[in-house]
């Protein structure tokens, strides 16, 4: 099974999501070639890595991420909710993650925004990336089309991808209009016909979020280029070993 394995928010089944611990643990897994993460802005305009717009679920803080300065966010515990052993984990900045992962894995960087919540998010993230990474080593993605359009206005050649949990009939047209060559799509919508269409348009497909080795094997069987995004990277090894086991059984003499 050659499909790329993408660690969703790092190794988020074992470590607190979107923390340095989760990213470090993901990089220690040989099968992980990509890490997916979420970026928002602090009140003072610093890109920080966190999924929810509010702080309550994954930190001991409260309120909106955007209403806190970086200094305030850095005081929060972003690990204890997962396990006592991760007590003291902090919300990382994008730059901290870029330094940790550079040359080790590629990044799927989701711009976490809705409407005009973060008008400067795209430009700020691009500034950090251009100082540190080459475009071949990352893709900028978002559910929010305005954010992807902002990326293209700042730098038309940067790789972008639409995130969607549906399969509309005009999906190819939407991607073309956005200038996207990457599609991040909920795994129930990944079909042979979708992959055929996306391949004809030279669009890379990532299926999310797959936490079943059986589903992983089924989707991988559609095409070896499909990226498999999971909270549990160990399942890639499990799915692969079962596939190999079936192959050996089918090829053994009767």
TrEMBL record:
Superkingdom classification of source: Bacteria
Location of the GP-PDE domain: 3-240
Gene3D superfamilies xrefs: Phosphatidylinositol (PI) phosphodiesterase
Pfam families registered for this protein in UniProt: GDPD (PF03009)
Protein's name according to its UniProt entry: Glycerophosphodiester phosphodiesterase family protein
């Amino acid at each position: 099974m050659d499909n790329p394995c993408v660690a969703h928010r790092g190794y988020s089944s074992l470590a607190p999501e979107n923390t340095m611990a989760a990213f470090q643990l993901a990089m220690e897994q040989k099968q992980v070639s990509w890490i997916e993460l979420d970026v928002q802005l602090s009140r003072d305009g610093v890109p920080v890595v966190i999924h929810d717009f509010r702080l309550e679920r994954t930190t001991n803080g409260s309120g909106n991420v955007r209403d806190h300065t970086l200094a305030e966010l850095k005081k929060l515990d972003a690990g204890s909710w997962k396990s006592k052993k991760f007590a003291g984990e902090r919300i990382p900045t994008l730059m901290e993650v870029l330094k940790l992962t550079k040359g080790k894995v590629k990044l799927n960087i989701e711009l976490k925004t809705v409407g005009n919540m973060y008008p400067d998010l795209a430009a700020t993230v691009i500034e950090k990336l251009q100082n540190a990474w080459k475009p071949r080593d990352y893709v900028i993605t978002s559910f929010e089309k305005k954010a992807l359009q902002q990326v293209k206005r700042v730098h038309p050649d940067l790789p972008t991808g639409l995130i969607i949990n549906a399969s509309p009939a005009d999906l190819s047209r939407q991607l073309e209009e956005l200038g996207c060559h990457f599609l991040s799509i909920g795994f129930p919508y990944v079909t042979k016909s979708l992959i055929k269409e996306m391949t004809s348009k030279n669009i890379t497909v990532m299926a999310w979020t797959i936490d079943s080795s059986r589903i992983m094997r089924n989707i991988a069987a559609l095409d070896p280029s499909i990226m498999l995004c999971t909270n549990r990277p160990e399942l890639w090894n499990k799915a692969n070993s079962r596939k190999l086991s079936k192959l050996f059984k089918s090829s053994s003499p009767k």
